[in-house]
Structure formats: structure tokens, C-alpha cells
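Entry 14. Structure prediction run on the chain below.
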Amino acid sequence: LGFGAIVCHEARGIAQVAYNCPNRTTFTQAQLIAPGGTTVNGIRGYVINGRYGFDNLNGSGAGQGVTGCGTLNTSNTIYELVENVNGSNTCFTVTGNNVTLDCNNYTISYAGANTGSGVNIVANWTTVRNCTIRTNGASYSNSYGVNVSAGYNVTVANSSITTDGTTSHGVYITSSSQFVHILRNNITTSLGDPVNIDSSSVFNRIESNNITTAASGTAMLGGGVNLNGVSNNTVFSNNITTTGSAFHGIFLNGASNNTLIYNNISIRGASAYGIYIYLRSNFTSVLGNTITTD
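Output returned:
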């Protein structure tokens, strides 16, 4: 087995480093290239589009307790919810780099009085995990569960995300975001895409999520996973269910060099397709997907 990578356990997460890291985990090449990657010591290592990626699933170090919505602006910090929180618009905005938001299975309610996002990420090396994120009893449009704007190396894991408003996507990855990993979440929408990736965002990975939507498409522009004008993204091993008319399991529009593999897709609405590859979506790899229709 060839050498793969060494990663260093930091106060919040991990970073690929040299041999002198005192607290480290080693991955072989075989572990990194295995389907879905390999988890060692709570760190998930994998290959995405020819590059190594790492997610810290457990974390380390004491966290800073959080009791209300606000801006998470201190870099290299773990923020931990200690109770449920409510926001009238956006609840959390992450501006500090190398930040973890661990909800400890508490709930983030947002957009109670106006448009907003549950967690708005405008930083790098961000992790959001163990959260329940949902709109706060209202149905405002363009109110995303998690909004990643120009983010780099962001992980959203082990969370439940529910949205209600028109074009209120569960996870919205935009503005040339890179290496965003959406892993093992339950994402449910009624009027938006559960996962929407657009605006030249690349090298993102949507993996092992349960994705459900009752939304209906307009002019064919809607999907459980919607790739719009992006490239080099991977949609892997998700369970995707759509029930609305003209709303597809995975929809590609002007999206090239993307990989769709081993997804289970159930389509129940009229005029909907399991995988719809639309205008200028070239060099798409489709392998091992299971598609059922009612």
C-alpha cells in the first residue's frame, strides 16, 4: 500500500502537514481512494476529483458555549450550542476562518420575521455539524438552511435541514465556493432545491445524504441536487426523493465534468426525470445509480 497523507489534529480540525506534527493520523493511498473514503480516528479522508480531502467528524478541544444567534468571527474556535436558538432573519454568520459550529443536536430556527439563512458561511475551513436547522414558522423566499458564499474547504455533516419558502434551498453553495463537503445530512424542502450549487463553484462533494423535496419545477429548472453552471463536483451515494411535478432527482444545467455515482433516486411527480442533463452539460460521468418512478 502506497503512502497517502499525514494530517495534524488542530484545536478545531485538521490540516495536511509534514512529519513533525505531534498528534497526527496517517492515511494510506488505498484508504484515500476507497469508495467513499475511509474514517480513521474520527477523521475522514477521501479523494475528490484527483485531490485529497479531509473532514474532522469528531473535533477536539473545549468549545465556546453559544446561547443565541450572532456572528462567529473568532478564527480557530469551536462554538458549541448549549440550547436552542432563534433568529428573526439570519441566525449565524461565520466570518472567522477555521471555525467549527457544533450544535450538539440543538435547533437553529431562523427567518422568523424576514428573509435569512440558518448559517451563512463567508469564510474558509468551516465545519457545521450535529445541527437541526429549520425555518422559524414562516415561509420567506430565498431563505437557505446553510448558505456557503465564496467558501473554501467547508463541511456540513450529521445535521437535519428543513426549509419552507420559495427557492429556499436546504444547502446553497455559490460564488465560486470550493471543496465544500455535504455529508450524512437529512435535507428536506417544500419549495426549493435541497442542494443547489451554482456560480462557478467547483470540487464540491454531496455524499450520503437523505434528500427529500415536494417542490415543483419551473421550465425544468429544479432538482433534489441542482448543478447550475458549475464543474468538477461529485454527487455520491445519496438517497434522493422528489414528489413535485417537473422536479428531477439530479438536474444539470450548463454544468460540465461532474460525477454522479451510486445514488438511489425515487421520482414520484409528473414530467420528472431521475437525472436530467440539460443545456451545455458536457463530460458528465453517470455510474451505478438506481432510479425508480411511480
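The chain is about 0% helix and 50% strand.
Filed with the rest of this week's runs.
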